[in-house]
Amino acid sequence: MKLTRLLEEALGITPPWEVVGTKFDLDNKRLDIFLDFPKGSRFPCPECGSPSPVYDTMDKEWRHLNFFQYNCYLRARTPRCECDTCGVHQVETPWSCAQSGFTQLFGVLLMLLC
To answer: Model-level pTM?
Structure first.
């Protein structure tokens, strides 16, 4: 099994999202996992759910659960979609907490630790 496929399975990443690369920095004890989507992908409008084309993207980063003793971050181009009815809206990624720099799983861990 390829590493990218293994990471997609472990993270629960589904199309159109895909793991496109990794960067492991032993000195800084950090693993970055890069996520992206193919050109031409459509995303549901956050307002009405209508499949809409990508308007533009912004690079974002989320803190994820550790990879063994290494800090792990997910990094992705996050799209805004352009709905014919609702206009341009930010798409929520399936792994993120709304308006947060953490993944959902990291947020759960923080709550458990509190």
So the answer is: 0.90
